[in-house]
Amino acid sequence: xxxxxxxxxxxxxxxxxxxxxxxxxxxxxxxxxxxxxxxxxxxxxxxxxxxxxxxxxxxxxxxxxxxxxxxxxxxxxxxxxxxxxxxxxxxxxxxxxxxxxxxxxxxxxxxxxxxxxxxxxxxxxxxxxxxxxxxxxxxxxxxxxxxxxxxxxxxxxxxxxxxxxxxxxxxxxxxxxxxxxxxxxxxxxxxxxxxxxxxxxxxxxxxxxxxxxxxxxxxxxxxxxxxxxxxxxxxxxxxxxxxxxxxxxxxxxxxxxxxxxxxxxxxxxxxxxxxxxxxxxxxxxxxxxxxxxxxxxxxxxxxxxxxxxxxxxxxxxxxxxxxxxxxxxxxxxxxxxxxxxxxxxxxxxxxxxxxxxxxxxxxxxxxxxxxxxxxxxxxxxxxxxxxxxxxxxxxxxxxxxxxxxxxxxxxxxxxxxxxxxxxxxxxxxxxxxxxxxxxxxxxxxxxxxxxxxxxxxxxxxxxxxxxxxxxxxxxxxxxxxxxxxxxxxxxxxxxxxxxxxxxxxxxxxxxxxxxx
Length: 516
What we know:
Among the domains are: 105-225; 240-333, no CATH class; 350-480. The chain is globular. Mean pLDDT is 82; it is low at 1-35 and 250-259. The two termini are 18 Å apart. It has helices at 17-36, 158-161, 250-254, 336-343, and strands at residues 44-47, 51-52, 57-65, 71-80, 83-91, 97-103, 108-116, 119-128, 133-142, 148-157, 175-178, 184-193, 198-207, 212-218, 232-234, 241-248, 261-268, 273-277, 283-293, 296-305, 313-319, 326-333, 354-361, 367-374, 382-393, 399-412, 420-425, 428-435, 440-441, 447-451, 458-464, 470-477, 491-492, 498-505, 508-515. 7% of the residues lie in helices and 52% in strands. The longest helix has 20 residues, at 17-36. 33% of the residues are buried. It has 4 helices and 35 strands. By secondary structure, it is mainly beta. A 6-stranded mixed sheet has the order 23-24-25-26-30-29, covered by helices on one side.
């Protein structure tokens, strides 16, 4: 259903020009509000039966098409403060469960898993007591029977493994990342080095037959490095690994004119290591993320000026993927349109903390960036997720547009019901968010989305068009559904046409499939 609004303005002659302008502006804002509530966004909704898990907390970690219209879903669950496991479930095209298994073996530490075709591969650590070592293995099973076959990959001494953390310290947690084509994967581990008396970082890259392609140890102090999952990229042939990390130098932190962050890009092969520092001069670049483009490796993020505590714009770098020579370096200030949408009349407000949620490459080799404001000063169990920030960058790194959608979300406990998941289809981006009340005109006469603590409203779909404008659609109300869905934990299929969410209320669960 589309909303059509006809407004007739009968203005007395005694009205001043300023009054006329204000009246016309209000009418236009009203029109824009109803225009944004488009109901013609195609979206097919499918739900599984409501079921119960043994454990309360579980999250989608991976989805994979089965080639017959069905899907394989991998979820992790937490059975205690320091214990967890995994559910692997195979559904048909009608969201009917075909097969499932719960995977939580004793004395096993799971580093990660991935699904490819009809196989599941779990990367895990087990203790070899006879040799006093920890062995990392690939444990593979077919979907048809879930019978696992294990192959040892590499080992660590007990002393090395003491640095590894699976629950307490995120920076010491092993990371498993595949390349986009799922022909290779990387295991990234921080360990103790007895000879150097400090922590070092080890990486191992394998193909899907578990043949070792790359093995390397970074000898620089790991405390100055941050190898996060989103900043590891593997080439399609599995012979090159790229790492982007910010090094935190204590002497740089002490300098009044210096910045806290210095990013470096590292290229590792079986025989060679190259490093490129990304020079930012008077800027401080943060939240950089890598993405492969045609013939270049690009890094995109936000930047601020030294001695300022607010973001000023978007930065872009692209490098030769072999030599790492920087070809392009651009710092683009936020546009007037962005500032008006974000702050209205209050231009002195500060954009302090931004988290990049997704970054995709569209059909025109343009980068589509989706981010969100967060409040890091809130209590540890209270989450604030504010305005959506999105932008499109041309092939040469120029910002085509940068826009903002006003929203305010808050929650106690689980943050998975706040925020959103972005999904690119063609040259349009779709965002899935929860709201506790109908969107309305808020501050500065801008459409705002709200989600308040303890209130369940509805699931909404926002469509960002190729020109940066957006409209939205209310998919369904939670009052008519058994569970609310975790919109920040969506799993997107490789074909990119369907997205899956898990809904939860205590041990009661339900899967949701949305197809665009």
